Amino acid sequence: MGEVKHLCLVRFKEGVVVDDVLKGMTDLVAEMGMVKYFEWGQDVLNQEMLTQGFTHVFSLTFATADDLTAYMGHERHAAFAPTFMAALEKVLVIDFPVVIAKPPPTAAP
Amino acid sequence: MGEVKHLCLVRFKEGVVVDDVLKGMTDLVAEMGMVKYFEWGQDVLNQEMLTQGFTHVFSLTFATADDLTAYMGHERHAAFAPTFMAALEKVLVIDFPVVIAKPPPTAAP
User: Which Pfam families match (chains A, B) (predicted)?
Assistant: First the structure.
């Protein structure tokens, strides 16, 4: 309850070594205690009409909106952001309080 | 391991009763055993430059890519899809195998 997600969809510039960017992001998140959960993935649809050209999803979960604010304002985030942004051809960001409409079976006793 | 997400970002048409659409989707997902987890949320950034006009996120998690394929091809999904699509001004879909870069603390023993 009360969880907030910071969802980031991107398309990398041609020539960018995505693994390097991912390593930078994973290292950053590992250091940042207020990030509860970090998952990412690469689109497999590959249908421009549906994906609108975005190829990667990064999803950060925070226990509270305050934790997200603390993350966004943290100096380590500020230090990494320019490197990340420079690698992107396009980006879309949405922050949202998570509503669980169907809980995962593992949440059951 | 092996989980796949079906991520759907949308902006509803003006006048659409979002709660009705959500109820339809929640009912559908509740009936569909192959959907492991369903969460959604409404953007709180409200910054067009970042969100590109998308306002809602729907995230369906499947244990395997086969489960996602079964969901997409199911007659109940086919029956609901036109109602859903008719409510949308814009939509973006990305399917991706989930890579967990920082596991949630609850996953620890």
Answer: Dabb
**Residue with tokens 């990340």, as numbered in its chain:** A84
User: Does the distance separating the beta carbons of B9 and A101 come in below 8 Å?
Assistant: no
Q: Is residue B71 part of a domain?
A: yes
Q: Is residue A44 part of a domain?
A: yes
Q: CATH code at A12? A: 3.30.70.100
Contact call for B101 and A29, based on CB within 8 A: yes
Q: What is the ipTM score, two decimals?
A: 0.92
Point out the residue among A61, A94, A105 whose CB comes nearest to the CB of B54. Answer: A94
Q: Is residue A101 part of a domain?
A: no
How many domains in chain A?
1
pLDDT value of position A105: 80
Distances in Å between the alpha carbon of B25 and those of A91, A107, B78, B100?
Answer: 27, 21, 12, 26
pLDDT digits (tens, 9 = 90+) for B62-105: 999 999 999 999 999 999 999 999 999 999 999 999 999 999 88
Global confidence as pTM: 0.93
Q: How far is CA B81 from the centre of its chain?
A: 12
pLDDT at B3 > cutoff 80: yes
Confidence bin at B36 (pLDDT 50/70/90): very high
User: B68 is in which domain, residue-wise?
Assistant: 4-96
Q: Is residue A16 part of a domain?
A: yes
